[in-house]
Amino acid sequence: MKNKVKLEVFDPAMCCSTGVCGSEVDPELVRFAGDLEWLKGQGVEVIRYNLAQTPAQFVNTVLVRDTLMREGNKCLPLILVGGNIVSSAKYPTREILSGFCE
Q1: CATH code of the domain covering residue 33
Q2: Considering the domain boundaries, does residue 3 fall inside one?
Q3: Mean pLDDT in runs of 10 for the chain (102 residues)?
Q4: Among residues 54, 56, 77, which one has the least CA distance to residue 67?
Q5: Contacts of 102 (CB under 8 A, 6+ apart)
């Protein structure tokens, strides 16, 4: 990853910023959190927003707001790279995330 890449994750409403808390932790969220940490180690700027904790970011990001208005919450999580949606409605694997950031 040669140039500084910015990856933004717009998560559905969760109890904490990563969803990796509480007694019933979703293993997919644990995997995804680890994959994001790996990306950070590769020099990718990773920013994560949670609908329950940072709703203003969802409203102020026009592309996200318009997608939510059109598709509803089922489109979450939305993954943006360079301000463009690269994934919606699922948490991509490390390999796919890496490909988005090349």
Answers
A1: 3.40.30.10
A2: no
A3: 83 66 73 95 95 94 97 96 96 96 90
A4: 77
A5: 1
